[in-house]
Every structure is written in structure tokens, then in C-alpha cells.
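agent> call fold_tool(seq_1)
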Amino acid sequence: MTQIQKRNNRRYFHYQKEILNTISEPASFITDKYRYVFVNNAFNDFFNKQTDKVIGKTPSEIWGEDNFKKNIAPQMDRALNGETVFFQYRGKMLDGKFKILEINYYPHYKPSGSIDGIIAITNDVTKQKHAEEALKESEARLKDLNETKDKLFSVIGHDLKGPLHNIVAFSELIEEQHGEYSREEIRKFNQLILQSAQSLSSLLDNLLSWSYSQTQSIKIFPQAILLHSIAEKCFDFLKQNAFQKEIRLINDVSPEMHAVADEKMITTVIRNLISNAIKFTDRGGKITVTATIVEDEIFVAIRDSGTGISKEKTELLFQSCGIQSSTGTEGEGGTGMGLIICKDFIEKNNGRIWVESELNNGSVFSFSLPVNF
């Protein structure tokens, strides 16, 4: 190569460096021997790496040997073979922060037409990609929420009819023909009205809880809560349902046992689980609430002597596809929505929920909660 050609090449490379210094994205020139010979000002700023700490180094020295061989070298080889390469790099930067980069490798041609290196231009798309991923998650959640809502309201519409019909029918009987019935008969009608009203109340409570939860309107107030006391309150609320089926409610939770959780949410969970147990337990059965502490968790179990659940159904109980109209041992209605709420509320309180059951051999619904803040 003549002196004039060498001088022209230097001028040409100097001109290219000046152009790369004008762009706002990090840019560098890497030779076909895998060595940095130029980085622009934006490169220094973005990677917090001074020019003299980069020039003459190889990408493997800057980014690490394993990372270079796995993620960078294959793309560089494509560019050195004449391809314009575009790829995304996800990983830790030189400062230890995780970023998502869009990297362009352009083959650099000498005046003779041969390739002597790569011009690399980088664009930080971390925020953009996180926003896109968040949007996809939001869209998927919204789709699932809409599907659940549609299924939920179709089931609720069906289950509202029964209790409402009972309330209206028995109220009309008492109003129109009260003189023809004995006090005992009227009392039985009133018990049926009460049972139907409680069923409606529970259904509407669950619907409101689910609505608040899905719209993020519900706020969590964790505190030390006494589980024996909560179970007693739920027994009081549901004692009429249990009495009518001659079901014994047993609270075996030690009075001093506590968990750290939102009291209203856990009350809703225990009430739903006991209500379900009553619904699917035969007349004369029993339901027992127990609790045990293991290290920093408390495990609460609601055990019934009911009809049990098949393995296929247990896998769907806590999913939106498990919402369906179901009938208790004496015709009680139900949607399965309560279990969806239980799972949501328990997980919001840093716990887990699960079920163990066999057909004709009862069920045990259990959940865990932390015992410390």
C-alpha cells in the first residue's frame, strides 16, 4: 500500500469516527481480529467506560469470555461474513444493571471491497420492552378477567333465581294465607326464607369481594389476628345452616394461635370454606377447624365428613374455569366463586391454599399464613 493510500485510509477512518461521534447511540468500531479501535462519546457515557479502557481490548475482555462466545461472537461472525445483523441482548451491563439492548452490526468495507471490521450501534430498549411485556400481561389478564366475568354472571344469574323465588313464594304464602297455618308451619316457612336470604347474602358478599379484588380497590391491613376467634364468628354466622342439617361444628384452634394477615379477608376465606363444607356434608356429619404452627407459618385446615371431590375436579377448584353451578347434599346452590376468592385473598396475604379429598371420604381445605410481620 502506498503512502498516499495509507493517508487516504486514515482520513477516511477519521471521517467515519467524526460521523459516529455525532450520533446519540453508543457506537464502536471492532476489527476483524475482535479488537475495539474506536468508541464514540455516547458509548463512554452509556457504558460508563473511558475510551482508553476499551481501545485495544477484545469484546471477551470487556464482556466476559463465556458471554462473548455464547451471545456476541456468533453475531459478529455473521457481520464479518457480509451480513447486516440485528439482534437483542438481554443481560447485565458493565455496571451490573440488567438491560435489554438492540444491537446492529454493520460490516465495514475497505476501499478495496474487503471487510476489515464491524461498526456496532446499540440502542437501549429496556423501558420499551418492559412496557410491552407489561402491556401483554395486562391484555392477558383482562382477557381472563372478561372470560371469568362472563362465566360468573351466567352462573350467578342462575343461582340467584332459586333463593329469590323461595323468598317471594314463602313470603306470599305467609302474607295471603297466614290464618290457615299454625305457628310452627309459619316458623318453618320463615326458616326457609332466612336460609334463602343468607344464601343470597353470601353470594352477593362474594361477588363484591371478587369485584373489589379484581379492580385493585381492596386494601390489605395486615395485623396479628386470632384464628380461634375468627372461626367462632364464622360458626355463629353459619350455625343456622349447620343446625338445619344437624352438622356439628368443632373449633379445635388454640385460642392463643395467631397469624399476620388482613382480618376481614381471612374471615371471608374461613367463612367460605366452612359454608362449602356445610353444603357438601351429609346430615349428621361434622366439620372441624384445626391449626398448627411450623416454623414461621401457621397451617389452618377445615376438615369435613362430606361427599368428597374427584381428583379431576380438585385440579380446577381454584381456577376461573372451576366456576360452575353446583348443588349441595340437600339442594343448596353454589358457584365455586368463593374458592376463587379464597385463593386470591390467601395469596394477597402471603399464603398458599390447597385441598386434599377423595370421593365419599370427605375433604380437607388447608391454607398457610405467616405468623410474623
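agent> call fold_tool(seq_2)
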Amino acid sequence: MPAAADLPPYQRNALAPSLLVAAYLFVSPLLVSGEWPLVTRFVVTIFAVIVGWYAIQGRQWWWLPILAAIAVIWNPAYPLQLGEAFFTVAAPIAAVTFLVAGVLIKTPRTAAS
């Protein structure tokens, strides 16, 4: 384990979940049959909330409206009927948004981390 002096002062906790959901979103336009659209709604909404939580921890409040909009658009509880074409276009845009958020959202490292 590296010494505390060797570690950067910040950690990017949102990067791993952002990479996972971005990869899923890039593939999601291919998953349009069966139960996959519902699974996609759950995955994207849950990961938007997770990345939003890391934005709160990092005190980067400006990400919250963007991630909340993604969570509302892909919300499985009260789904918006926007059509398959909309989600085909919106999925890569949301994926890039998650990638940018994962890179930019950082949390100060604590002594215990």
C-alpha cells in the first residue's frame, strides 16, 4: 500500500460507476426487445442516483440537475413515453455525460481513505 504522502489529495469515486453505466448505455440501443428496455431504465436510474450521491459528497452541486434529469427520463416507476428513437439518440449523450461526470467529480481524500 502506498504511503499517505504518495496518494493524490482527491479520489474519483464516481469514475467506476460512470464507466459501467456508460458502457451499458453505448450498448443499450441494441437491446430493444423483451425486458431489456425496463432493465435499462432501472440500471440508468440507479447509476444516476449513485453518481449524484458522489457529486454531493464532492460538493459539486452543478451535476445534480443533470443527473436528476437523466434519472427522471429513464425512471422505471413512472416511465416517460418518449419512444425508441428518442432513447436511441439520448443513450450516447447520457453515456458521454456520465463519462465526463466520472472524470470531473472528485472527493477530497480523508486520512482513513
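agent> summarizing second result for user.
Residues 13-105 form one domain. Residues 36-57 form the longest helix (22 residues).
agent> awaiting next instruction.
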